[in-house]
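User: Once you have settled down, look closely at the record that follows, taking as long as you need, and be ready to discuss the fold:
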Amino acid sequence: MVKSELLHEAHDHAHDHVCWGGGHAHAHHHRLEVSDLCVSYNEVRALEHISFATECGRSIALVGPNGAGKSTLLKCLAGLIVPDSGNIIWRGQRLTRSSHEIAYLPQRGDVNWNFPITVRGLVEMGRFPNLGWWRRFSDHDETMVKRALEAMDLMDLQDRQISALSGGQQQRVFLARALAQEAHVLLLDEPYTGLDKPSQEVLAGLFRELTKEGRLLIASHHDLQTVADIFDDVLMLRRTQIVFGSTEEVFTAANIDAAYGANIPTGLEDRF
């Protein structure tokens, strides 16, 4: 689990500016604004007219049927896809390329887990955006890697090959890499897919701790029965934006029906 005492620990390094505390007065400066975002693949529109604003200390579920554009939106926010039109504003500046303050965590199925690297080696990769060419690891880099491993309870696993990890451990390594990167924003593509129930519950607890400590989490999510238990806000998509707002306000039967149509998932009767 995330160890709050580590995340609150104060230090004076000039580059260590990540949101370590949710109560910081600067939270309103760490704002993400998306306005009229449109994206196409080979002249086929994948996303259109997406607009929302949020800030550090929140968790957002991207909800919608397969092909709704959830992964596309995450990649746009990460600076990996250039939109046709619209703007992404992060901390008052237009986002035109990837930023070390924004970490993208792909679906586990998109990762080659047989690549010969240890847990620590993968977490150390989170420091690469801060290093630049030819710079060696500094004491600060080593400190950030250690803090990230400790925060995700991975110290005992740091020398293990990533191929030997369980699904839940793999997600914790992803999160540790993002923490080592000093990312303010964590973008996760279907983080719960393939996890057993205990691992899902651990991950939900980690999400709550990370947002409490001041990070912004945005995750695509397919299990509608657990949305209200995990996320503060919901953005419903069906290539275009259906609705955005607090989970309590917008996670309704009418909005779900608008997003999924005839393909609305079953088993939600107890929620409404």
Summary: The beta strands are 31-41, 44-55, 59-63, 85-90, 93-94, 102-105, 185-188, 216-220, 233-238, 240-246. The first strand starts at residue 31 and ends at 41. The radius of gyration is 18 Å. The mean pLDDT is 84.
